[in-house]
Amino acid sequence: MTEPTLDLLVTGASVLTGAKDGLIADAVLGIRDGCFVLVAKAGTEPLPAARRAVHLPGRVITPGFVNVHTHANLSMVRGVAEDLGFAPAYTPGIPQGHMVTPDEAHAIARLGALEALLFGSTLINDTFVHAQVVTPAMAEIGLRVWSCGRIHDVDFSGISVGRWEHVDAIGEARLAEALALAERYNGKSGGRIGVMLAAHAPDTCSTPFLKRIAQAAREKGLRVTTHLSQSKVEVERIRARDGKSPPELLEEVGLLNDHLLAAHCIHVGESDIARIGRAGIHVAHIAKGNATGGTIAPTTKLRAAGAKLALGTDNMHADMVEVMRWALCVGRIQLGAVTDDWQPSTVFEMATMGGARAMGLEKEIGSITVGKRADFVAFDFRRPHLAPRTNPLGNLVHVAQGRDVEMVAVDGDIVVEGGAPTRVDAEAVRREAEAAIAALWARAKG
C-alpha cells in the first residue's frame, strides 16, 4: 500500500487565496505537517494520497481571518456597552476589568475565543486581565492566540468615577506580569501562542511608564499594541498633562514605529495623521465598534499618509465578515463615492495579509500559499443569500456572515466542522460563561 503523502486533501471548493492568483475555482489544497504543500486548480496534476480527504463543492475557502484587536472577556457587557457612548472601563455601573476573578476570566474568555473561531478568525490578538489564565484557556479552543494583560499604571478602580491616579507599583506589577507571560508563552504551542506588550492607552499610562514600556519592548524584541486617540477624553487629558497630542506623545517616548499596533486612531488631526503615516504604524481599524459609538476613523487619510490598516472586532462581537463590510462602507462614506481603492479586495486584504503583517507573521499566515501555515476557513455558499456565485469575494464582503462558516482549520487541524467546534463542547462553554457573567453583573450592581 502506498504511504499517504498528505495529511489532508481538500477538493471541490473555490479558493480566495489572498495572494496574487486571487480566485481558484475548483481548487485542490494539499496539507502536510501543518503547511500548504499544494495549491492548484483541479485537473492540473493527479491527486496525491492523503490520510483524510474532504470534498467541499459549493463552498468558498479563504485564509483564516486575523483579528488584531479584541477583548474576549468583554462579552460580559455585550448588548449594554454598545449604547453607553464610551468604553466599558470608563463607565460606572457595569462590570469592570478589576472586578473579574481568574475563574470568571477563564470562563468568559473561552466564550469569546469560541465565538471568534466559529466566525472564521484563526488568530486573535486579545488584551484584558488575568492573561496568565486566559491565554492557554483560549488556545485550547483551537485558534492562534496572541494575548497580554493590559499594562497600565493608573488605578482602574477610580477611572469610571473620574479619579485618575498613576501608581508606580501598579505599573511595575503589570509590566512584570506581561514580561513573565512572554517568557512563558511567546512562540509556544508550535507558534500558536504569542505575546505583544499591551500598553493600555496614553491616558492610563504615565509618560515615564510609557518610556519604560518602550524600553522593555526593545530589550525583549516584542511588538506593542495600544489604544490610540480613541476618545476626546484621552486627547484632552494628554494635552493637559503633556502639552501634546497622543501620537506626539508616543513618538516622544519611542513607541510610534512600525512595530506598533494602535487601535482606533479616531480623534487625530492632520499633523497627527502625517506623523502616524511617517512612522508606518499598523492601525487596528474597529469599523463597526467605532460607528456604533458615533465615530469614524479617517482611514482614507491614514492609509494615504502611510499607515497600514488591519481589522479588529474589539468588544461588540467577533464577526470579521461584518467588520470587513463596515470598513468598506466607512471608507466609501469618507470619500462620498465608490472608488477603485475601496473595494471588497481592499478590506479582505486588511482582514488577512494586513492582519498578518501587523502581527509580524506575514511569512507564516495571511494567504493560502505553498509553504505557509495551513489556516483556512470554508464558507457554505450553497445558502440562498450567497447565490449566485458570480463574484465570490463580492458576496463574501457584501452579503455573507460569520454564521456562514462551515469549517475552520489551523495548522491543517480541523477545529470547526459542520459549523461546530471539534475540541470543546460549545454548550458547556456558553453555560459556564453565562454563570460567570451573571455573578459579575450582580457585584457591579451592588
How would you describe the overall organization of this protein?
- The chain has 446 residues and is an alpha/beta fold.
- It folds into 2 domains: 6-63 and 373-420, Urease, subunit C, domain 1; 65-358, Alpha-Beta Barrel (TIM Barrel).
- The protein has 15 helices and 20 strands.
- The strands form 4 sheets. A 7-stranded mixed sheet has the order 3-2-7-17-18-19-20, with helices on one face. Strands 12-13-14-15-16 form a 5-stranded parallel sheet.
- Helix 1 (102-118) crosses helix 15 (426-445), helix 9 packs across helix 11 (299-305) and helix 12 (320-335) crosses helix 13.
- The radius of gyration is 21 Å and the shape is globular.
- The mean pLDDT is 95.
Write the layout of secondary structure elements.
Elements: E1 6-11, E2 14-16, E3 23-24, E4 27-32, E5 35-41, E6 50-55, E7 59-63, E8 65-70, H1 102-118, E9 121-128, H2 131-139, E10 144-149, H3 156-159, H4 168-185, H5 188-191, E11 193-194, E12 197-198, H6 207-220, E13 224-228, H7 232-242, H8 246-253, E14 260-264, H9 270-279, E15 282-285, H10 287-292, H11 299-305, E16 308-311, H12 320-335, H13 344-358, E17 376-380, H14 392-398, E18 405-410, E19 413-417, E20 420-421, H15 426-445
Helix pairs in contact: 1-2, 1-15, 4-6, 9-11, 12-13, 13-14
Count the beta strands: 20
Tell me the count of domains: 2
Task: Tell me, rounded to a whole number, the average pLDDT.
Answer: 95
**What does the largest sheet look like?**
7 strands, mixed
What fold name stands as the CATH topology of the largest domain?
TIM Barrel
Secondary-structure arrangement, i.e. CATH architecture of the largest domain: Alpha-Beta Barrel
Low-confidence stretches: none
Shape: globular
Strand order of the largest sheet: 3-2-7-17-18-19-20
Content-based structural category:
alpha/beta
CATH superfamily of the largest domain: Metal-dependent hydrolases
> Roughly what percent helix?
25-40%
Return the CATH class of the largest domain.
Answer: Alpha Beta
CA-to-CA gap between the ends? 68 Å
Radius of gyration: 21 Å
Query: Quaternary status of these chains?
Result: single chain
Number of helices: 15
Bin the strand percentage: 15-25%
